[in-house]
Design goal:
The complex is a heterodimer of chains A (371) and B (140). Chain A has 371 residues and is an alpha+beta fold. Chain A has helices spanning 20-51, 64-90, 93-105, 108-112, 146-176, 182-211, 340-343, 349-356; strands at residues 11-12, 15-16, 138-139, 215-219, 229-236, 240-259, 262-283, 289-296, 305-306, 310-322, 328-334, 366-367. In chain A, a hairpin with a 3-residue loop joins strand 9 and strand 10 (310-322). The chains are: A alpha+beta (371), B mainly beta (140).
């Protein structure tokens, strides 16, 4: 009985412990009902206007048109859901993938931007070459824009401390009137602590991004190929006393997965190599610090890879420790293509002999491994 | 992946790679033959053969189709999809087979047979593309 009907099912990303067929049938029934409901109600709504025309009800506002929009959304959502479900049930994952590939090859927007056509899944590097450098060929854009983080921190701090102010007025009023609400006071104190922490964090972020000064990184060529050595130039602006400044070549794997209703991303650093470091020096606003270093890409390095949920990202990371400042790290994405050493496979003599045979040999046959 | 009823016998699927080669360089031509056996030809609704890469690991699965062919009984002589058939495709430059810390990229030839009233039956033949070391150098 438990095999036929489960009360509790687990959902791990796109995988479910229950029957896929039962799930798809349920989804199709839901979408079909929504579509049918929408079509019938929409037909009735329009037919009523055709039979008994009422210009007053067609006035722009939240009357007839709102109902029309809601019912149209039923038709669209139900119809699209039904088509998607039907396609998923009737076509295998490979067939859907082949259809998606054909569609992407016809994509007009993609055609407009230069893409590495012969290197599928290697990310495009057009965003890295549109800014010429002063010292070397290209100036790299920072991989994470501090503006968004600063904006999010500002909004959170404003909202949190706004509520904290209201709570503070209530709490203090109660105490002044000698009718203290101890539950509210106990709730307010940790709330206030978070508010103070958020202000401190916001000030630190502003301090870090305005006072620290700009970091620029330039490279001699793009895209980068493993086994070759390039040049990298770094410039650090500001008015600071630097304890240490380092430049690293970093490779990270990034995986996105669903956990319940949350979408989580895990990043794992799998390779890092120090390219350059400098200690104990001072930077003046009139004279930014500049240095160049060789940038060797390991011959057997994995190429940059980008898919919907997984990626392999290469970047140049600038790490600094500055007197009276928190340590900082700024990343600059680069694109690494497959190298000669990884594209070619060393074939053993026996395999090479077999490969030269005109007929397909009987070896290498695999049976049984059914999914 | 495959739906099978308990009382029916699964078809025998076989894939054979030319020269017994299991590692390919980018741009190499992959030649293989596949065959279906131990099933009545009228039971086969369609046969799909594909060369795909897919990811394994912490993240959700990504999959890319490099080669895809779907055959129906009407495409075959006498409507019989069982006889040996050759697949030939030139492999791309990327993604190369990779085994990392939280991400693995694998390549395979996938043979999928759709059976009348019995769902489908799948077989995979893995191979590697390129020569990225199995383990990347550790973080210093």
């Amino acid at each position: 009985m438990a095999r036929l009907f489960r009360f509790l099912e687990k959902k791990r990303g796109q995988r479910r412990t229950g029957s896929n067929l039962a799930g798809s049938v349920g989804e199709a029934i839901f979408c079909g009902t929504l579509f049918l409901l929408g079509v019938l109600a929409l037909t009735a709504l329009v037919a009523a206007q055709v039979v008994r025309y009422d210009p007053q009800s067609l006035a722009i506002g939240v009357g007839w048109w709102l109902v029309f929009l809601v019912l149209s959304s039923f038709v669209v959502i139900g119809g699209v859901g039904l088509i998607r479900t039907t396609l998923r049930v009737s076509a295998s994952a490979e067939r859907r993938g082949a259809m998606a590939r054909q569609a992407s090859e016809l994509d007009i927007v993609r055609e407009a931007a230069p893409r590495p056509k012969h290197y599928p899944t290697v990310p495009s590097y057009d965003g890295l070459t549109n800014s010429p450098g002063v010292e070397l060929a290209y100036r790299l854009p920072p991989s994470a824009t501090p503006g968004w983080r600063l904006l999010a921190t500002t909004l959170f701090t404003l909202a949190w401390n706004g509520v904290a102010c209201v709570l503070a007025v209530w709490t203090v009023q109660g105490h002044l009137a000698r009718q203290p609400d101890w539950f509210l006071t106990a709730f307010f104190l940790p709330f206030l602590a978070v508010g103070v922490w958020s202000i401190r964090y916001l000030l630190m972020q502003i301090w870090l991004h305005t006072g620290m000064g700009l970091t620029t990184v330039e490279i001699s060529d793009c895209p980068l190929v493993p086994g070759r050595t390039y040049r990298v130039a770094i410039a650090q602006h500001g008015h600071i006393t630097v304890k240490s400044l380092e430049l690293w070549l970093v490779c990270e794997e990034e995986a996105t997965y669903r956990q319940g209703t949350d979408i989580r991303t895990e990043v794992r650093r799998v390779f890092e190599q120090q390219l350059w470091s400098h200690r104990d020096f001072r930077i003046e606003p009139s004279e930014p610090f500049q240095a160049t270093a060789p940038l060797p890409i390991p011959a057997t390095a994995m190429h940059s890879f980008h898919a919907a949920h997984n990626s392999v990202n290469w970047k140049l990371a600038v790490r600094g420790e500055v007197a009276h400042w928190p340590p900082f790290e700024r990343g600059f994405s680069i694109v690494v293509y497959p190298g000669e050493a990884t594209l070619r496979v060393e074939v053993s003599a026996s395999v090479a002999r077999n490969a030269l045979r005109p007929q397909l040999a009987a070896n290498g046959t695999t049976t049984g491994a059914k999914a | 992946m495959s739906d099978r009823s308990g009382d029916s016998v699964d078809p025998l699927l076989s894939i054979c790679l030319a020269g017994g080669k299991q590692s390919f360089s980018a741009g190499d031509e992959l030649i293989c033959e596949y065959q279906i056996d131990a099933i009545d030809p009228t039971d086969i609704q369609a046969v799909e053969v594909s060369v795909v890469w897919y990811t394994e690991g912490k993240g959700e699965e990504d999959m890319g189709v490099h080669y895809f062919e779907r055959r129906l009984p009407s495409d075959a002589e006498d409507g019989d999809l069982r006889p040996m058939r050759r697949l030939r495709t030139r492999l791309p430059n990327s993604p190369l087979s990779y085994s990392g810390a939280i991400l693995t990229i694998r390549w395979c030839i996938r043979l999928r047979v759709f059976l009348r009233r019995r769902g489908d039956s799948v077989m995979e033949y893995p191979f590697t593309l390129g020569a990225v070391p199995l383990r990347v150098p550790a973080v210093a």
